[in-house]
């Protein structure tokens, strides 16, 4: 088992958006497989036909692709494998590790009521477990696994340690329903075995399932995967992450303007650590990630930490790579995408846009000066900055800029000279100059904007406010 190539998987249900917790689990599986030259597989657990939708399946694909979590081979549909699941249940039936149960829902409910009244365990024990097949009636039946009645099942978990479950607490779970459809608990095991999954890295809400699923592995003589049950994600208040804490779907974070690299970095740090490292690249995460770095307690989602990391990733990303990601963000946010000319202009201004932007909306807000057409629309603060005195100073500045060398030092010298001539500070000139060039109170430095805009556009914008 330990010598086998590593195979991990993510198996989301297509019943809605791709949850941020599912994305974190997918990331852990992806990192573990990629760091060991293994395979990372995707299975869509679409057996709940009433709730599973093609739209939700597409949302999973989009979420995975945006996060950059590429999977090996084609995505597997669990529903389409129902015949294989039934085949295994019938094999277990033939080998005596499962049995036909003819108990009705009413009989089971009555058993539990009576047990509760007598203060006994309500764990259903089927009277059909050891019945002679010749006594079987011609009635609908389910197929149940024969769980051991005594002893202990040990889940050897890489995160939780050894977890012991008394076998008298395990019921003879249903494998195949009376209509012939497989249950989730059977389907998961058969699919994981057939797909060659060596490591089941999943949420610790599945920990109790592991003991029951091991019944099928043992009955079939199959290797049990390495278990790693990771704690769930909580909100800042320590309660299970829910809509009241904010966005839950992966695609919402793309539409909010977080780069995919920042989401990968942040999600990796949610419940896993490598020393004190906070900011790291994909290559580092792949190299460092291991199961022993996963903590046992629930991680808390912190939007401020995500924003901080997001700003670091924007600043560290190559300018050419940022532009297409910003275009993808605009599409996800249902905003108009940039024309080729605007995209080129944005690329040229990136050096003065990305250092302090924590998200793409903040970056685009700072980029208004290079994306807007003349005459600029002024925000309230900019309009106030352009009073008569300020306009007069800008009118003095204009002719001096016409003949200035167009580099930062020369421009700063000209603006400083005009400020001194008017017995005022540089900032008092920069404020109306910012308003004239950007129409916004939030922008890059006036000198960076002048360099990006060039002489002609800078003079034209000054002309708009001084004419």
TrEMBL record:
A motif ('KMSKS' region) lies at residues 240-244. A motif ('HIGH' region) lies at residues 12-22. It comes from the Bacteria. InterPro entries: aa-tRNA-synth_I_cd-bd, aa-tRNA-synth_I_codon-bd_sub2, aa-tRNA-synth_I_CS, aa_tRNA-synth_I_cd-bd_sf, Glu-tRNA-ligase_bac/mito, Glu/Gln-tRNA-synth, Glu/Gln-tRNA-synth_Ib_cat-dom, GluQ/Sye. The keyword Nucleotide-binding applies. Its main location: cytoplasm. ATP binds at residue 243. Keywords: Aminoacyl-tRNA synthetase, ATP-binding, Cytoplasm, Ligase, Nucleotide-binding, Protein biosynthesis. Pfam families: Anticodon_2, tRNA-synt_1c. Gene3D superfamilies: 1.10.10.350, HUPs. GO terms for molecular function: glutamate-tRNA ligase activity. It is an enzyme of class 6 (ligase). Residues 6-307 form the Glutamyl/glutaminyl-tRNA synthetase class Ib catalytic domain. It is found in: Cytoplasm. The keyword Nucleotide-binding applies. Its EC number is 6.1.1.17. It catalyses: tRNA(Glu) + L-glutamate + ATP = L-glutamyl-tRNA(Glu) + AMP + diphosphate. Residues 329-463 form the Aminoacyl-tRNA synthetase class I anticodon-binding domain. Belongs to the class-I aminoacyl-tRNA synthetase family. Glutamate--tRNA ligase type 1 subfamily. Catalyzes the attachment of glutamate to tRNA(Glu) in a two-step reaction: glutamate is first activated by ATP to form Glu-AMP and then transferred to the acceptor end of tRNA(Glu). PANTHER family: GLUTAMATE--TRNA LIGASE (PTHR43311), GLUTAMATE--TRNA LIGASE, MITOCHONDRIAL-RELATED (PTHR43311:SF2). Monomer. This is Glutamate--tRNA ligase. It comes from Psychromarinibacter halotolerans. The gene is gltX.
């Amino acid at each position: 088992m330990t010598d086998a190539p590593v195979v991990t998987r993510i198996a989301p249900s297509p019943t809605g958006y791709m949850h941020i917790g599912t994305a974190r689990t997918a990331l852990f599986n992806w990192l573990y497989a990629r760091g060991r030259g293994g395979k990372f597989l995707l299975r869509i657990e679409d057996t709940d036909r009433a709730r599973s939708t093609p739209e939700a399946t597409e949302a999973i694909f989009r979420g995975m692709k945006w996060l950059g979590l590429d999977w090996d081979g084609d995505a597997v549909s669990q529903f389409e494998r129902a015949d294989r699941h039934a085949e295994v249940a019938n094999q277990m039936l033939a080998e005596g590790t499962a049995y036909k149960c003819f108990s009705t829902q009413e009989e089971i409910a009555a058993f539990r009521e009576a047990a509760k009244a007598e203060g006994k365990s309500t764990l259903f024990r089927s009277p059909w477990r050891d019945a002679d097949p010749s006594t079987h009636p011609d009635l609908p039946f389910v197929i149940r696994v024969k769980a051991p009645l005594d002893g202990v099942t040990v889940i050897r978990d890489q995160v939780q340690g050894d977890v012991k479950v008394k076998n008298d607490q395990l019921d003879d779970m249903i494998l195949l329903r009376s209509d012939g459809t497989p249950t989730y608990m059977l389907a998961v095991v058969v699919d994981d075995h057939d797909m060659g999954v060596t490591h089941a890295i999943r949420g610790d809400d599945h920990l109790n399932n592991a003991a029951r699923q091991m019944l099928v592995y043992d009955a079939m003589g199959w290797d049990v995967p390495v278990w790693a049950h990771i704690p769930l994600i909580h909100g800042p208040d320590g309660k299970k992450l829910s809509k009241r804490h904010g966005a839950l779907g992966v695609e919402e974070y793309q539409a909010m303007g977080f780069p995919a690299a920042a989401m990968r970095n942040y999600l990796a740090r949610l419940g896993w650590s490598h020393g004190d490292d906070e900011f790291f690249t994909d290559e580092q995460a792949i190299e460092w990630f291991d199961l022993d770095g996963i903590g046992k307690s629930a991680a808390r989602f912190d939007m401020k930490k995500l924003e901080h990391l997001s700003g670091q990733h924007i600043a560290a990303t190559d300018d050419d790579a940022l532009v297409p990601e910003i275009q993808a963000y605009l599409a996800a946010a249902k905003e108009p995408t940039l024309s080729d000319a605007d995209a080129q202009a944005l690329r040229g201004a990136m050096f003065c846009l990305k250092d302090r932007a924590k998200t793409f909306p903040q970056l685009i807000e700072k980029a208004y000066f290079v994306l807007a057409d003349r005459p600029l629309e002024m925000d309230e603060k900019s309009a106030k900055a352009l009073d008569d005195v300020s306009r007069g100073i800008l009118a003095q500045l204009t002719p001096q800029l016409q003949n200035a060398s167009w580099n930062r030092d020369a421009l700063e010298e000209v603006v400083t000279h005009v400020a001194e001539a008017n017995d005022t500070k540089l900032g008092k000139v920069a404020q109306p100059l910012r308003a004239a060039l950007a129409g916004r109170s939030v922008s890059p430095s006036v000198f960076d904007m002048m360099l990006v805009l060039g002489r002609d556009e800078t003079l034209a914008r000054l002309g708009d406010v001084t004419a």
